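Final paragraph of the annual report: two paired records, presented back to back.
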Amino acid sequence: MKKVIKGVAVIILIPTLLFAIFLIYSTVVDFKPKPIEKINEATGTVINVYDTLNVFNWNIGYCGLGDDMSFFYDGGDKVRTTKDRTLINLNGIKNTLLKHDSIDFYLLQEIDRKSRRSYKINQLDSISECLATYNMSFALNYNVAFVPVPPNNPLGKVDGGLASYSKSEPFKTSRFSFPGNYAWPKGLFLLDRCFMVQRFYTSNGKELLIINTHNSAYDDGSLRIKQMEVMKTFLIEEYNKGNYVLVGGDWNQNAPKDGAELNGGKEGRLTRLRIGENFMPEGWDWQYCEKTPTNRMIDEVYNPETTITTTIDFYLLSPNLKAIIHKNIDLKFENSDHQPVLLSFAFLH
């Protein structure tokens, strides 16, 4: 009997010990970015304030969330698509980027460098070769040695982040960490959210800030509210200095809308939020269009009749900028669970 008890104890103890060692290792190697990190500095080129500029924003879903995907974390049944489909998505994304060759700034989210979920394909290098004439800046926001879920087919190593491309050379690019994270140990295996700021000289002596953001998604809303308050303070401070400010990205919340509730309710594991109508001071311009959705739920293979869609990818412009053209590009979610958003803007002198 003692041998049986001892055997059972060993069977229980060994997995427990291994899991404890794994948690200790994950804690030691956990990515801990500073609140503000310099990405690069350069001489910088001057942008003419009499020019109209074009921005292209897209969460490319690490080339693994095309219309074929039904993702386990959203309630679907797949962990990752095939390698062939990942490459097809990557090529489709590059072709879409090249079709819009008049773009001055590309803002991309969820671009992988060496992740198991995307078969260790260096998407950053591949897209940078595609946009070889652009200046590239990269901000790491997902750096985990091993994501252990789902247990039967873990995501494994993840290495990805935000990439911003610009025809003009920024004189400074920085990574700003969003505050807060999930509690330990869950926070060890999720994104360290951030926004990336590129600063450009302008011909009238001011600065143009192009900001690429990717806010939290699966929290109960509390993290996104904190993140938005931090960003709001930063944006207003920069505008009060006389600078021009443009933010684009995947906000993981809906833009303000007259008469709409702040909270949009639950969709699967997601808590949908809507930014408050009076969140920013008067004059700040939210540029969005809800007629063409920019994001879909991935709880099923994409079906235009049944798949839940929404608009969470859009822009925010400071009062000294003017939107000229705004367009959500409908690609039927073929290569990503998000769709691109195009914006043309001008300076108000």
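The closing record of the year follows.
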Amino acid sequence: MTEKTKSGSRATIKHVAEDAGVSVAAVSKVLRDAYGVSESLRGKVRASMEKLGYRPLAAARGMRGQTYTIGIVLPDIRNPFFADILTGVNTALERTQYRPLIGISHSSVETEMAMVESMIDRQMDGLLMIGSTETRGNLELVAGRKPLVAVGHHDPEATQFDTVNNHDQLGAMLVVKHLTAGGYKKISMLSLISGTSTILAQRELGYRRGMMEAGLGKNIKILHSAQTLREVKITANKMLSSPTPPEAIFCWTDLIALEVISVAKEMGMQVPGDLAVVGYDNTMFCDFAQNNLTSVDQSGEQLGLQATRLLIERIKGRNAAEHFVVTPRVVVRQSSDPRNSP
């Protein structure tokens, strides 16, 4: 809906100033979120903006050097964990003038970079890249053009951009520790085919370390699947139909773990009982009675909040890199009950 004044024309900064009883310069300061603007002035101007339906033109803002938009690139819209991150992003933006615009890369490096180029062309003020598999070199090229925060990308030595992660290696180790404490020894991992994902590399390393520390090195088995439910179903069938099937499967994400539970039940197996299943992300679907999925909580909303905070700081001029890491925890539910438990 287009903003209108009483005369029917689009509301301008001058109309806002007249309605609020302040100068055009004062309105401009509020719009720029300038230092030293009082809450009283800010409230008065925003009330007039709301009353008149005033919205700054993004194109005009871009000409002045800032559009108050941030670009968010996601690898997939189907994974519910990304919704948790976006909830944190939106919460962080509530009291700011920034608005997010989202692009989906479908886990394609080419599509991801095309999205980034489009966002830069549209003069977005900064970028959040979630689950990116780009190299440091490519991310540094992006960061040289726009402020950048990478979520779900481990690179603590990076100096040109910020990163926000959970401690993926520790999370996987905690899963193995939880399962071995429940009497499971033949623990396999179902991971994703992705040669450059630092998240998966860290989770697989954590799984291997956990198994070695538990004295179960001979039982280490990692199978990889493409990120489609059809491929996950094929891989899960292969795992569960083998001559020596696993007693427990650690899945790289909840979405995959739920499909593994479905496959196991289709094969007549009990979860738990015949098979324990553990996911990663602790999304809302874990709590559903038919799932009761044990999962690693990596605080998706907090990741989104912190990433947004860091990005706005970068937009405002911070140059020193920050690398924020959340400590994960295992949220235990019925899907990983101890073996032979009543």
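The chain is about 40% helix and 15% strand. This concludes the annual technical report; the extension proposal builds directly on these records.
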